[in-house]
């Protein structure tokens, strides 16, 4: 047994952001395999420049944000294509955001209302300043050219 064994040292250190409590920055990276399971058609639709919702097979309640089963009666739902144009039901200006949105802050989140659909769809409004958004404003869907299979593959712009 070597009593003088030592781990190798480097010149790298840790940046201390706060002392009490101690807060340090660590980089963390991992590959993660994710299944969209029953929501796969929604994300495949976004890649094909289509917005899919779901409709109850029993009571007909329709969801802009898809559900596998109806929240009104519990029956299974089926996919249907949503219109690509709607209107702002409500909106909020975000002054802070998660990592994916840091470069876009300020940004506007909207709830889009579609004719004939019972629920609303959450998305971003692009192409309008936060003070230009209004309730009732007509908006149309746009899709990223290269799908990332994420909810942010779709956004809305003023008509």
Describe the overall structure.
The chain has 1 helix and 10 strands, in the order E-E-H-E-E-E-E-E-E-E-E. It is mostly beta strands and 159 residues long. It has one domain. Strands 8-7-6-9-10 form a 5-stranded antiparallel β-sheet, with no helix packed on it. A 3-stranded antiparallel β-sheet has the order 4-3-5. A two-stranded antiparallel ribbon has the order 1-2. A hairpin with a 4-residue loop joins strand 1 and strand 2. The longest helix is centred in the N-terminal third of the chain and has 8 residues. It is elongated, with a radius of gyration of 23 Å. The relative contact order is 0.15.
Which key features would you list for this structure?
159 residues, mainly beta, five-stranded antiparallel β-sheet, three-stranded antiparallel β-sheet, 1 helix, 5% helix, elongated
Our Rg estimate from Cα atoms comes to 23 Å
Q: Unreliable stretches, pLDDT < 50, 5 or more residues?
A: none
The percentage of residues in β strands lies in: 25-35%
The end-to-end span amounts to: 76 Å
Structurally, how many domains make up the residues? Answer: 1
Strand elements, count: 10
* Overall pLDDT score: 92
Q: Structural class of the helices, strands and pairings?
A: mainly beta
Major sheet summary line: 5 strands, antiparallel
Name the shape in a single word.
Answer: elongated
Helix content: under 10%
**Order of strands in the sheet with the most strands?**
8-7-6-9-10
**Secondary structure tally, helices:** 1
SSE order: EEHEEEEEEEE
């Amino acid at each position: 047994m070597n009593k003088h064994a030592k781990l190798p040292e480097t010149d790298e250190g840790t940046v201390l952001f706060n002392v009490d409590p101690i807060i340090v920055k660590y980089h963390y990276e991992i590959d993660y395999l994710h299944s969209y399971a029953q929501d796969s058609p929604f994300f495949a639709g976004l890649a094909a420049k289509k917005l899919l919702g779901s409709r109850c097979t029993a009571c007909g309640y329709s969801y802009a944000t898809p559900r596998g089963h109806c929240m009104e009666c519990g029956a299974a739902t089926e996919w249907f294509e949503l219109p690509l144009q709607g209107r702002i039901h409500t909106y909020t200006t975000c002054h802070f955001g998660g990592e994916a949105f840091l470069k876009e802050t300020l940004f506007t989140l909207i709830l889009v209302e579609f004719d004939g659909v019972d629920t609303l769809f959450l998305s971003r409004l692009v192409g309008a300043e936060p003070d230009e958004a209004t309730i009732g404003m007509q908006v149309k869907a746009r899709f990223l050219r290269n799908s990332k299979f994420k909810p942010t593959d779709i956004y809305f712009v003023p008509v």
